[in-house]
């Protein structure tokens, strides 16, 4: 699976030899929160986790601190590892600024969903586990047919992970948690579309708005004989839609990183021209 991951030099700054990208910054913040919890105690989680009812009591810091506090366990460590693995791959595709906005969108989506549901079914939200799940599912959605662990298709692994989450909520009769998770994933998908992800799913709202067309002057009549450039390059007459379909098929087979740099630039130009 390592062939699907690649690094990026688009970092905010460096800590020694470590390039601090948006993904690395979030992972480091989560790791620091876990370390502080180890030394301070579990009471820190209760003080910084998010609950809508406590927000009404004036504890306004909770919506901003919940992602960065969690207890120490093998699962919390694995969450950080997987968040780094899949997050850096998405960031190589988006760039550090859009990835930062994606994290903001994920945080806002989960906070809003938990707020709406939390008044009906009280609970507490903390840790990066749900954030890591959202990043993993977005990574899968960007290339559903690429091979995952042991040759399993990414889409099949995604269905398995979501099914396990749903079954765990059902087993615990945590109806509020299940509803909050499903609602947050819908909102996360919209946020992801707004930064340029999920282009394979145009039915998801939130895509970049098309710019208003400008009024152009009538073009001068062209000569009836073919131009020199057209006679040499008949392949350029292929429609934009057909070329976009070819590139999207390639993304569907091998993920966005399977495109060359020239193909990525070409796809962006075709998208803008289609608007």
Automatic annotation (TrEMBL):
Molecular function as annotated in GO? serine-type endopeptidase activity
Give the record's membrane topology. Answer: Multi-pass membrane protein
Composition bias, kind Basic residues: at what positions? Answer: 225-235
- Bilayer-crossing regions: 20-44, 64-87, 99-117, 148-172, 178-204
GO annotations of cellular component type: membrane
Question: Where in the numbering of this chain does the DUF6576 domain appear?
Answer: 235-270
Question: Is-annotated flag, keyword Repeat?
Answer: no
UniProt-annotated stretches for the region Disordered: 212-241
Q: Cite the entry's keywords alphabetically.
A: Hydrolase, Membrane, Protease, Transmembrane, Transmembrane helix
Organism's domain of life? Bacteria
What Gene Ontology biological process does one annotation of this record name?
Answer: proteolysis
User: In its UniProt entry, what is this protein called?
Assistant: Rhomboid family intramembrane serine protease
Q: Which organism is it from?
A: Tessaracoccus defluvii
């Amino acid at each position: 699976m390592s062939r699907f991951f690649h690094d990026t030099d688009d970092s905010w700054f460096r800590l020694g030899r470590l390039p601090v990208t948006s993904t690395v910054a979030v992972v480091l913040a989560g790791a620091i929160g876990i370390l502080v919890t180890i030394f301070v105690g579990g009471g820190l989680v209760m003080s910084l986790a998010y609950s809508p009812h406590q927000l009404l009591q004036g504890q306004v810091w909770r919506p901003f601190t919940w992602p960065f506090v969690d207890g120490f366990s093998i699962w919390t460590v694995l969450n950080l590892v997987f968040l780094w693995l899949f997050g850096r791959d998405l960031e190589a595709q988006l760039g550090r600024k859009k990835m930062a906005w994606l994290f903001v969108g994920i945080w806002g989506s989960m906070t809003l969903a938990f707020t709406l549901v939390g008044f009906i079914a009280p609970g507490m939200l903390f840790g990066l586990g749900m954030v890591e799940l959202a990043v993993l599912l977005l990574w899968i959605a960007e290339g559903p047919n690429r091979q995952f662990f042991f040759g399993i298709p990414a889409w099949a692994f995604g269905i398995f992970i979501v099914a396990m989450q749903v079954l765990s909520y059902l087993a615990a009769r945590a109806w509020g948690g299940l509803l909050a998770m499903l609602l947050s994933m819908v909102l996360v998908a919209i946020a992801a579309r707004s930064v340029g992800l999920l282009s394979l799913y145009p039915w998801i709202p939130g895509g970049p708005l098309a710019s208003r067309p400008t009024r152009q002057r009538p073009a001068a009549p062209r000569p009836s004989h073919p131009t020199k450039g057209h006679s040499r390059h008949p392949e350029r007459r292929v429609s934009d839609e057909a070329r976009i379909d070819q590139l999207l098929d390639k993304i569907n087979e091998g993920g966005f990183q399977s495109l060359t740099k020239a193909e990525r630039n070409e796809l962006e130009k075709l998208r803008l021209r289609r608007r």
